[in-house]
Design brief:
Length: 257
Amino acid sequence: MISNIPIFLCLILYSLSIKPDINIIKTDDSTTYNSSAVIIIDDMGNQYKPCLSLIKSKYPITFSVLPNCPFSSRIGQEGHEYGHEIILHAPMEAWDNASNLRASKPDKLFLATSMDNQALINMLESMINEVPNIIGISNHMGSKFTENSTKMAVFIKLLKDKNLCFVDSRTSNNSKGLFIARKFGVPSVGRGLFLDNEQSYKHTVKQLKKLMEISEAEDTAVGIGHPYPSTIKALTDMLPQFKKNKIEIVPLSEILN
């Protein structure tokens, strides 16, 4: 009799039946969409459990995975298995020396403008080997590196040779990334806006609404966020609103130039 089942066992069975909202809302073919949006989550790789709702999400969120982190390979593999597109989030030199010092420790992989071309290629190859199933690369930091036309040309040429796309995070208004990518014929796109420069639920909701406005005005938009608890909660609550506004969340590859 069910009345004889211990209460704690009932609670366990009930908890197993519950899934986060982000996992059960799925884009279907019955909706006619007027525009699209891409959502990229940067800085994946340092955490696993907090990112599970993103990994298991039915929305085609793009994961931008840092190399040489505890869960870089696992997230690249499991994210791919769940149907998400994976890109490498390549650490690059910034104008901020404090950020460079944190990112360029001996055990870290880092692209610097002081590297000769072969050293740069070798470092980028090492990064690529750290994250499985990538379709492209975006820049982590890189305000200084992406302004350097010579180094960006070396970087983009390797992407072309490996049939990888480029996402310019636009950490500098003077980035040469998109110009050089298009010069070499590398599929590319730039960030529309950051979703969570402020780590607050209210701010991220506001940014997601702005992403919808950009998408409606320009037919497509790219928003970049991070695996913060406030961001994950905002996505959980706001992604259904994209569908209600006839904006389809699509994989990165669908909007590349």
